[in-house]
Design brief:
The structure is a single chain. The chain is built from 15 helices and 14 strands. With 527 residues, the chain is α/β, with parallel strands linked by helices. The strands form three sheets. The protein has an eight-stranded mixed sheet, sandwiched between helices. Strands 2-3-1-4 form a four-stranded antiparallel sheet, with helices on one face. The protein has a two-stranded antiparallel sheet with strand order 10-14. Strand 12, helix 14 and strand 13 form a beta-alpha-beta unit. The longest helix is centred in the N-terminal third of the chain and has 45 residues.
Length: 527
Amino acid sequence: MTGPNPVPDRYDEPDQLRDQLRRLLCHRAAIALGVALGLLGGAALAFVRTPVYTSASEVLVRSTADPYGTVTVAADNQISMGTEQQIAAGAAVVARAARTLGRPAGDAAALGRHLRVGHRPKSQVLRFEFTDSSPRRAARAADAFAEAYLADRKVRNEAAAQRAARSVEQQIQAVQQDKKQKNAGEAVQRALQTELDTLHRRMVEIKSRDTDGGYVVRHAAVPTRPAGPGRPALLALGGASGLALGILLAWLCSALDTRVRSAGDVRAALRSPVLGLLPAGPGDEPDGGTGPLKVGHRGGDRAESHRALAYRLHRTGPSGGPGGILVVAPRRDAATEEIAVNLAAALTECGRQVLLVDADSDTPPVTARLPLLPDDARPSGQPAPPEGSRLVDAGTAGHFACRTTGDGTVHRLPAAASQERTTVVLARPVLEHADALSAAQRVDGVLLVAGLGTTRREDLRRAAELIDCSGGTLLGAVLDTDRRPDRLRSALAALRSRTVRRPATTPPDTPVVTLPAQDETLTAARR
């Protein structure tokens, strides 16, 4: 008995990494802002901060142990470098260095804050580092502290030698008094004389002893470059920090962003397939008077994407093809009109008789932006279009009829003449008007238009729920990747919708009937 087939993960690890990088790159402005802030901070530190200079001098510390003593001690054990380091940074040395530099006694504490004393392990060399805004003052102060420490150490050695000399002098006096006693024997006198000679030799050794505490092995040199990182290093550090800040800001924007950024977001929000993906257009391309119509007049990737969408819808159901399709967006989107018009032209190219119904009364009629045929120029052999409609010249794709409802009501639409006719309905946004929900009950399927980077996932979910609750069938979504935010374009569209309004009543010579209920032409199942 075999076990269940493993369910493949939606993404493997490389796909997840690419998806995350793609989401971060969608917020390039945040990354650029972080880099700019980092560079500004680095430039501020590089050009505003006062440069400081550090100079160092080194002193070899000599042992104070008696080199003529009977017990020899290793040099490492004769000197405590930790103690000497504390003494070198003490108040006595700082005050002596301040007098050497000609500074008042009150500045000694401030002078000591710029001093740093250190030593290497297993070494008898003290290093004096002094930091100042002037390179010459830094070198002079480092040498002054080294000389002050040596002078202080010499004073301490001389004081120790004087104490030792006084002790030996007291011992000599005591031996001389014992020697003056007349009752002492000859052997005692010889012993006292020997001890007295030893003490005299000891006194000579103490007085001839070198009390120097050490000597300077390296004098401070005038520094030529400021201490710490230079301007190029600060700018590079600021740029790296800014890049990290920009990535963090982009990640926060990506985590808080509710707009769709990929086809996977649309599928996850709608639980329906993405039937078409419109690539980005070349920009302000001259249309040659065809307006949003591209199929049959202009080539390019977008025209081929519209054809692929039509072929997919045409093959979705039986050989008869789709009977009615509603093209609608959750909110106002300029791509809805383009998709509806080109879908009608592409279905005409597939051999269908297409009727495009413009039920969006908030914008100027779509017929004003399409190449229409004159009323007396209908091709011979082609069935007459429905009354009240006009023929649109789709170029190499053929001709299709276009009809405007006038008052925007979608429950009163021209009826289909035969089963070979497909009706494409262009309605107002689902979340702004209820007309689209009324039309969704009377068509075979609904195409939901979404804009990459502009449509919100919550709007897609709400639109899908409303379409399902109204009894409509959601065929899938069409994702337009060229719907970048353009405030100027949105403002012009809003101004045009206010200045140009459709008539509020239906023309009297247009017969209208109620659109039949939904048939079983398409096989797409409802959610």
